[in-house]
Amino acid sequence: MGHILSHPVTDKTTVYCDSQTLSYVIGSCQGWRNNMEDAHCAVEETFKVTKNIPIINNNSNLGKEPKLRLETHEETINVKIFGVFDGHGGWKSAKFVSECLPRSIIDEIKVNYQPNKPNNWVKMLKNGFMRCDHDLYHKHFQCGTTSIVVVIINNSQMYVCNTGDSRCVMSTGKGGVKNLSFDHKPSNIGELIRIQDAGGVVNMNRVNASLALSRAFGDFNFKKKKVYIKENSSKVPSHFGLKEIWLPSEETQVTVEPEIIELKLDYERDEFLVLGCDGIWDSFRNSTLIQLIRHKISIGVKLDKICEDVIDKILQTIDSNTGVGFDNMTILVVAIHGGEISFDGWYRKIQNRYENEMGIV
To answer: Nearest to residue 37, comparing CAs of 124, 98, 108, 122?
Structure first.
């Protein structure tokens, strides 16, 4: 179910969905310029992967060639993908990536997954990001977007993929907060080195004094693969001795390559995930937002209302000097309740746990 609420300066939308093992609520808030540049995704797909594996049978008769046969292996894969995309320079890239990226990731898994064998999930996920960015390039949009994406395989293994400065955190009980992403800013040492090695500079904490992000979808002006660098800058003038080099996509000034954190879900310990764009985190510390959500659950507030309250709280702190409250805001909360308890049972579990921690009961 969903509903739309009115606000004097913004429109807020809350979307709720309940599934067997994970439930999620998405809250978003349109910015002041009447230009909602954020997008989100919540996709689930179950499919079978069938591969014919060549098997060599050694022939016991000496002098005869071994026989080759094909053995069919099949596995059922469940994939859940949650994402928040914060566009800049327009909404088109965020909207496109929110639809393209889940499909690209699932297609990569279908093609490259090997049943009954160890699989390189990180490589498949990165390939999905690269493929989506390649498709975005042909759209010729003059805008870009960050992405924070959670991919859950068979309700067990979780991968948090971050490109930009949107963020994912997890509540782990007893006030515990697990940071599952790190903002990609041009001034970060690793990002700064890559930018400079690709012929760029960082001024005013921006790539070439322009872009405040060091990783993003789109922004192809910062992804030139053919660059010129000085072979020996100490011995030749700046206009001589330039060497032409070609860069892979991972090494351009701005790259779409995600930073990926892998972990196994613990349904007893883990409580919920929060995904949000920087418009949310500009106003909340990670731990503060987790504590607020847990407190509201403990007093009977449902997640859809909590998302509204979070956005309202930010709007009440609008500051024209800092820019807080003027940015687009999207928050996605994923309840981790497993198949053994329902969504309602999850609410009761969090309430009981919080009350025990606070000494209320």
So the answer is: 98
Burial of 57 (0-12, 13-18, 19+ CB in 10 A): exposed
Q: How far is CA 311 from CA 26, 64, 74, 123, 265, in A?
A: 11, 74, 45, 36, 28
pTM of the predicted protein model? 0.85
- Residue pair 267/213 in contact by the 8 Å Cβ criterion: no
Q: Alpha-carbon distance 77 to 226, whole Å?
A: 40
CA distance 351 to 359: 12
Residue 38, judged by CB atoms within 10 A of its CB (0-12, 13-18, 19+), counts as buried
Q: Are strands 67-88 and 144-145 parallel, antiparallel or unpaired?
A: antiparallel
Residue 248 has, within 13 A of its CA and on its CB side, a CA count of 3
Question: Which has the closest alpha carbon to 258: 185, 163, 194?
Answer: 163
Per-residue pLDDT tens over the stretch 136-157? 999 999 999 999 999 999 999 9
Helix 286-298 crosses helix 303-315 at what angle (to 10 degrees)? Answer: 130
Closest CA to 124 of 136, 110, 137, 135: 110
Q: Do 275 and 331 touch, CB atoms closer than 8 A?
A: yes
User: Which CATH superfamily is 2-53+70-358 part of?
Assistant: PPM-type phosphatase domain (3.60.40.10)
Ranges of residues in the chain whose predicted pLDDT is under 70: 1-35, 58-65, 229-242, 319-320, 322-326, 339, 361
With contact defined as beta carbons under 8 Å apart, do 271 and 336 qualify?
yes
